[in-house]
Amino acid sequence: MIDEAVASIDLNLIAPELTLLITACVILLFSFARSMQRGASAVGFAGLVVALVLSANQWGHQASGFFGMVTCDNYGAMFKIIFCVASLLALLLAVRYFSQRGLNRPEFYALLLISTLGMMVMANTSDLVVMFLGLEIMSVPLYVMAGYVRRSLESNEAGIKYFLMGAFASGFLLMGIAFVFGASGTTDLRRLVTDFNFIVSNFDLFLSLGGALVLIGFAFKVAAVPFHAWVPDVYQGAPTPVTAFFSVGPKAAGFAVLFRIFTFGFGDLEVLTNLFWILAVLTMTVGNVLALRQDNIKRMLAYSSIAHAGYVLVALAVGTQGAVSAAIFYLVAYMMFNTGAFAVLTMLETRAGSKSNFSELAGLAKANPYLSAVLALFMFALSGFPPTVGFFGKFYLFASAVNNGFIWLAIIGVMNSFLSVYYYLRVVKVSYFDSPEGAWTPVPFSTAIIVVLFVTAIGTLGLGFFPGELLKLSQTSLIAFL
Amino acid sequence: MTLDVAIFFISAIVAVFGATMMITVRNPVASVLYLLVSFAAQAVLFIQLGALFLGVVLIIVYVGAILVLFLFVVMLLNLRGGEDLGQPSRPMSRFSKYLIGALLLVELVFVIRGSAGGTDQTVTGMMGPVVETFGSVQDVGMLLFTTYLYPFELTGVLLLVAIVGAVVIAKRETEREAAQKKQLVEERGHSSEEKVS
Hints:
Chain A has helices spanning 2-8, 15-29, 34-57, 74-100, 106-123, 128-146, 153-184, 189-194, 196-222, 231-237, 240-246, 249-265, 270-291, 297-318, 321-349, 364-367, 369-383, 389-403, 407-433, 447-465, 467-476, and strands spanning 63-65, 70-72. By secondary structure, chain A is mainly alpha-helical. Chain A has a two-stranded antiparallel sheet. Chains A and B meet through helix 1, helix 5, helix 6, helix 7 and helix 9 of A and helix 4, helix 5, helix 7 and helix 8 of B.
């Protein structure tokens, strides 16, 4: 037994996770030193880059270790790369934002790294217990990060709300895992698949109930509609770089797990397909309709992130490999233009007294033509206009829906995209055509944020011109999908 | 055999009774004590199932340590019984609690009816036969450090980050930080952090 255990421990499988953990511990251990107080962001950046390289190295390897608790495949590697990039972009945004507010402390970067570690754990396993632990390791730092600006009441509110909702969701998830375990005698999705027919014929009800509860647990995390109520307040109250991370990282992690569980594990459960259908339609529609009436840009982007989660849920309803690869494409694309939009907001918020209301954008085009052009680009991408990657993301998703007979789902999706054009283009309209009340306050220059803007803009346009490469990548990531 | 059944029913009833009283009683201290009763009865159930180690751990860790901590917190907060712990509930929430209760009841009936269909044989077929040493300290330790090594270590990371998070939220600002912040706020006229809680 012990020899077997030693043989099963292969640290290469969890190399990126270990890197992040060690980096976070180094930051925490040396946080008393003055040089670390200033250099924590650089250390964190280096750790993330190393983890990114190690994750990319895992591409093409197919292995399982730690008694089947860790599963390395292309799918996991793909998502790990997504998490690393999202985390890197958020880190770059955070440096300027927090140092300007006197809050640039090493702990923040340690929390960011550990949260990313949790996401990696989620993507890198086919065992429900490990997925749950990964989810918690991801979420606990996020609660703290949401409430990180302790002097701001809004930030406190965001932290508390997110914490309560997260704890509530964990309850559903655990209950669901318990039901699945009760029905199948295993928490390993691969064994569940092997014995699927047997389990369904004997314990259909338990399995469906467990699946539904697990779905509810993760629906909270990806902000699908009946479980979205926390999103606007948390997104608005949390510090903007953290919001940028919220809307990309945890969402991608949630979907990584959802696809693994429901497209692979519970493949043929008919009840759930109908549930996904309803969930997708509700999420798209409610998100878009509520976004129409917002006056705060962060709140608007919060509702828009709900709507985008709805588009990705279409892939879950369709449930084929083609749909999942389209969803991965969409998540990468969304990371690019959504982080970009939040980067512009972060830049604008370095001005005194900014609350990111729509009216503050008035006059942006005259004062900062480049910044407003980039903002317009991201808004066009969010609403899905052709030269940007946003168009191809939606196109692949809806095409996979049509190809598999989900025509109504595609039609509702396209109608929702048209609806969303209104509020995205309102940002463009205000920044180009409205004149500011009073004098325009100049936007301070910040190298780190410019880098983020550059990367995301290139990503949004470049992937829009050459979408084939990314699509091929996301398709190969599903080879031997476990 | 009959003694077993009697013990099971007694401890099961006590466990459910304790849990029910815990959520219905208005005095927080009494609520914690009822939770303690429920846990103790659950420990008996665990031991009856052969999970000796889990039963003992439940008593040592939950009853012995965590609930005492709960009591400390409740007493520190100085909540007294009979105090109104919240606003009177609105009709909507009053209705929804009955709805959820009814749903759970229906679910329970379905589960019981469903489980009557499957025979015991299939269950042991899935889980494998119960071994002699099931639930012993050695067995649990063996599992924790072989099959569940990875989740076990991850739990360590989770506890670490929870502690770090609590410290980050709760720690007092150092004077240097406070001065730095004040200076920054004055320099830039930043208003978004003026709302001191």
